[in-house]
Amino acid sequence: MALLCTVCFKAVQRRSETFDMEFTGLYSASLQNDKLSSGSVPSLFDSPMERYLKAKQSVQHFTVTQLGLAIFSNESSNKYVVHSYNFFLFPSTWGVTDVEFTLSASSIQFLSHYGFDYNKFLKDGIPYMNEAQEKILHQYLLEGSRKVSSALDRDALKKAIDEVTCWIAAAEEEETMILQDLSGYQVLEVQLVLRHALRNVWTQPLGIKKVMVKKVSPQRRRLLENSPDDCCQKELILRSARGFTNLFQILVQAKKPLVGHNMLMDLMHLHDKFYKPLPESYEEFKGNIHNLFPVLIDTKTVTKSIWKKCQFPLRSSLLEVYAVLCSSNLNPKDSMCPKIALASECSRYAEKKSPHEAGYDAFLCGSVLLKSAHLLLCTSTDGALEADPCFPQYLSVLAEYLNKVNFIRGGVSSINFSGEDVPCHHPPLLVVHVRGWPGLNERQIYQEFKALCRFDVRRLSKNQFLLLSNKFKQVRLVLRDYKHHPHLRVSVYGHWRHSPGVNCLLQVSGVVALWSVLAFVLGGATCCLF
Questions:
Q1: Closest CA to 19 of 273, 329, 298
Q2: In Å, how far from its chain's centre is CA 501?
Q3: In 3D, which of 377, 397, 373, 262 has the Cα closest to residue 325?
Q4: Which helix (H) or strand (E) segment is 465 a member of?
Q5: Which residues contact 134 (CB under 8 A, 6 or more apart)?
Q6: Which of 324, 348, 461, 508 is buried most deeply by CB count within 10 Å?
Q7: Taken in order 154, 160, 162, 165, is the CA torsion positive or negative?
Q8: Chain-centre distance of CA 435, in angstroms?
Q9: Whether the Cβ atoms of residue 215 and residue 200 lie closer than 8 Å to each other
Q10: How deeply is 480 buried, as exposed, middle or buried, from its count of CB atoms within 10 A (0-12, 13-18, 19+)?
Q11: pLDDT score for 500
Q12: What does the DSSP 8-state code read for residue 412?
């Protein structure tokens, strides 16, 4: 808690905060009934709303294991000192709260490969809760409930009560005893249960694993209960149970620019875990995030957009992007480049790379932002900077990227949290007509084209499938190589030609027209007979 207080103090005073999160999984396998179309995996066919609803299900299945926060302090015009923190998080288990979450084997294996400490996550993770969970806990405390959440806690409580009951019978007033080996919320639960059951005792925590029990008179007990320093007051219990959420609320109040890398899933977890459960409405989610964090900067959006302007080589990982920006060829270390120094307590990140440790990735993310902004500023002024750039200048040159969060493989290139989403331009949609190959499904179509190129597949009708790629070259290759395929006829999709709705309407119109002609002809023939 002392560390959280320190971070809160620094967060209010600094220029910007960059963050990174690690999860127990990304996309839920249980939701992937059809991986290539309606599952939770991103698809080029996804609109922002469809993607949000897919991701929402995954966010509700998984939890946050680690959150990194790097606070950048602008010590002078172009010098930044970074305090980077790494928080292991674990859902609050106080009272009736018992959160269920899923583990993805591939994500666990991935994090293990990079040295993730699961003991710290499970045993020492800082609790957190959203507003809905806090409301339930508040009601629980108001009702004076003493329900304990786990069998482990019940055993610890029973042992503590037995010890105190045996001791208090022979104890004198003001005599004390110490309960040992308590952990987490047991320290609070033991005190609440003992105070409720025994009116002649008082309790006080000693550190994080011990509780002192004192025998007192009823009069002395009443005085102590009214003390403002009593750790068992309801507001103090709530503050303790909120844990990391207290820091989240400080970050929200600070209204500093929040910086991330490919941060859509991170923002959804922030909303769901620390603010409120994710709403059904995509627009409501966007509005909530914008109210919480009015200035968002996604370094993935920035670097993806400037690669042509600045001859910036495309790289996928954050560490690769950082390495490119640190290279002397792209971003020479002139006197005006931002100088980034890690604070002494974070020096291990300067000595050793720690990819996929959230605190380290948060440091990389902020560094990428400053170096990208400097590169843009040099480009916009043809390198003729008259003085050391300041942070507001960097924000100014980044203006077109503010609040635009990268959208992986979908109908837009980025989500605009302060306005309308702008559709992106994909290569033309292709339609595959299947002949003489019964029972073909999306997965088989995907496998058929996989060796040549990468398409997302969606069924159009019984014998037709849509193919969508983000590369024009792949579209041209498929149209050329499948021109004479015996079973698959590939062509550019045309709405009036291929849309099932249009075809149905044309068929109905044709039937109506035919009946009209027949009625006219037969009606005319009948008239001739008379």
A1: 298
A2: 38
A3: 373
A4: strand 464-468
A5: 238, 241, 242, 245
A6: 324
A7: negative
A8: 44
A9: yes
A10: exposed
A11: 56
A12: B
Check residue 4 and give its pLDDT.
44
pLDDT of residue 247: 93
DSSP element (H, E) containing 426: none
pLDDT at residue number 326 = 84
Q: What is the pLDDT of residue 49?
A: 94
Helix (H, G, I), strand (E, B) or coil at 166: helix
CB neighbours (10 Å) of residue 520?
10
Report how far Cα 274 is from the mean position of its chain's Cα atoms: 11
Q: Spell out, as residue ranges, where the chain has pLDDT lower than 70.
A: 1-15, 29-40, 95-96, 144-153, 311-313, 315, 328-334, 383-384, 386, 495-530
Q: In 3D, which of 230, 237, 232, 191 has the Cα closest to residue 210?
A: 191
Q: Order of strands, edge to edge, in the sheet holding 296-298? A: 296-298, 258-260, 16-23, 64-76, 79-88, 339-342
Question: Angle of helix 358-380 relative to helix 318-326, nearest 10 degrees?
Answer: 40
Burial call 224-246: b when 16+ CB within 10 Å, e when fewer: beeeeeeeeeeeebbebbbbbbb
Closest-CA residue to 320 (of 353, 357, 359): 353
**Locus of tokens 């109210």:** 291
Dihedral-angle region of residue 262 (phi above 0 means left; psi in -120 to 50 means alpha; beta otherwise): left
Output the pLDDT for position 389: 83
**The tokens of 227 are what?**
């003390």
Give residue-wise pLDDT tens across range 475-496. 999 999 998 899 999 999 886 5
> Can you give the pLDDT at residue 37?
44
pTM exceeds cut of 0.90: no
Give 261's contacts (C-beta < 8 A, 6+ positions apart): 20, 298, 299, 300, 318, 361, 364, 365, 368
**Angle (CA) 309 315 318, round 5°:** 110
341 pairs with which residues across the strands?
81
